[in-house]
Amino acid sequence: MTPVQASTIPLLSEHKDVVVEAVTGSGKTLAFVIPVLEKVFKVLKEENEGFKKGHFGAVILSPTKELASQINTVFENLLQYYPENEKQIKTQLLVGSLGSAREDLHTFLKEKPQILIGTPGRLLEFLSSSLVKTSSCEILILDEADKLLDISFLGDTQSIVRQLPRQRRTGLFSATISRAGTDVFKTGLSNPVKITVRSDNKQQSSVPTSLGLFYMVVKQQSKFKLLLDIMINYRYKKVIVYFPTCTSVTHFYSMFNYLLSKSDRVEKDELKVYSLHGKLNAKPRLKTLENFSTSTSSKSVLFTTDVAARGLDIPDVDLVLQLDPPTDPDMFPHRCGRTGRANKVGRAITFLSEGREEDYVDFMEVRDISLKHLDTPVLKDEFSKWYDTTVREWLFQDRTRYDQSIRSYVAFVRYYSKHSAGSIFRLQSLDYKALCEMYCLTRIPKMPENKYIEDFPKDGWLNFSIDFDKYAYKDKKKEEARLHELKTEERKKERIEKAKKKKELAKKNSAWSSKKEHKDQLGS
């Protein structure tokens, strides 16, 4: 057993509530899975009929669908070795988008699972049914408890806790549980035992010693060129790339697939790219995660957001790239912790834009996380020119892609404004022109933040390399609508121009007497 398992399992299996803080990849999942199975098994052993219809023995809460699914898989893997002559222990996964709450209820009453694993929203909806009885629940587990206790989940989490019996065991688990402070007692803990398992490296208490944390100082406009260069040249099996927004994941997933298809530096099917973000439905999200986890390509890359930052244990991830630091510094060790798990060597590299963002290193040092400087690879001029040409070629194929660039730009500026380290990530010091270049925009979108741009170009135009009158959508209906709007605008301009000329002509041909009268009035 790992230290966290050896410390936690005996206490939670008996009659102690626990609050467990241990570094990422230290084996926290098994530390609560085994006690949960122990509790359920004892009830099945003591009661002839086991749990009554509509009753269950355990609840495991997770902040994301992906983590809930992973926990469910861990239970299923262990239960493969359960004796066939014993009463079977079953689990049920309760997450949004995987069927309706009514379907979940039908499955529950038919299969009679004793262990419920889910996300707060769907689980709360499930428990609200009068057919579900909570009085037999023996144990409640909150995985990534600090996230479940923040403002976005606290209401649902407390509502679930209030529906469960007071005489139960409760376990809270996270690599950053101390950030939750006294909020942990909102879960109904009874005289809990605090278990803390830290790294041997005192300066990096929330990350394992096998994980190397690095940063690169990059030019804003070269960020994605550098990402592609690393993806092609760096040695790795699997890499997770964290993007700031869902929109940017979708946009750059499509762009990078095109770039890789046109590159002569990558063999076909040598490098496989996947995308995952919170706006996708549960089924494609879980399918993508499964495909990435089981990928047999020589190199696999996952473009994602913070939806894949907590708790996920994906094999063979040896590199994590953060294009921008997370808005919440507590998320930093969780992102980095997707590699360097179970004492395996891993690297996490964070891109910091030149200038004020470099102060982020000192900011994290105060939080006991040390980042080492890594030299930024020098991009060859030939590669940069090829990248620019190929991206423009891709953009010109469909105007929708330019629209996505605009949305990605706007979403990033809003993301940037939400950084908790506001003194470092300031909208006033953001290089908006370089940011536009990074997103391949020829015109700065209209936003309130434009007031921070010095020497703002006329009407926001950075260059006139794109003729927007001829820039077409691939979708025929969308293109027809654009052309119709363009004709309407042209007619509107013509009407305005005619009205202007008519007014000037009327003024020119007005009576001499009225002109003289007007001049006399001015003279007086």
Question: How would you describe this structure to a colleague?
Answer:
The structure is a single chain. By secondary structure, the chain is of the alpha/beta class. It has two domains: 3-197, P-loop containing nucleotide triphosphate hydrolases (Rossmann fold), CATH 3.40.50.300; 203-397, 3-Layer(aba) Sandwich (Rossmann fold). It has 17 helices and 14 strands. The strands form two sheets. It has a seven-stranded parallel sheet, sandwiched between helices. A seven-stranded parallel sheet has the order 10-11-9-12-13-8-14, sandwiched between helices. Strand 10 (271-276), helix 10 and strand 11 (299-304) form a beta-alpha-beta unit. Helix 1 (3-13) runs parallel beside helix 2 and helix 5 runs parallel beside helix 7 (154-163). The radius of gyration is 29 Å and the shape is elongated. The mean pLDDT is 90.
Q: What's the number of extended β-strand segments?
A: 14
Q: Main sheet: which strands, in order across? A: 3-4-2-5-6-1-7
- By CATH reckoning, the class of the largest domain would read Alpha Beta
Query: Sheet with the most strands?
Result: 7 strands, parallel
CATH architecture of the largest domain: 3-Layer(aba) Sandwich
Radius of gyration: 29 Å
Structural category is: alpha/beta
Portion in strands: 5-15%
* CATH homology group of the largest domain: P-loop containing nucleotide triphosphate hydrolases
> Helicity range of the residues?
40-55%
Task: Point out poorly predicted stretches.
Answer: none
Number of helices: 17
CATH topology-level fold name of the largest domain? Rossmann fold
Taking the alpha carbons of the first and last residues, their distance comes to: 101 Å
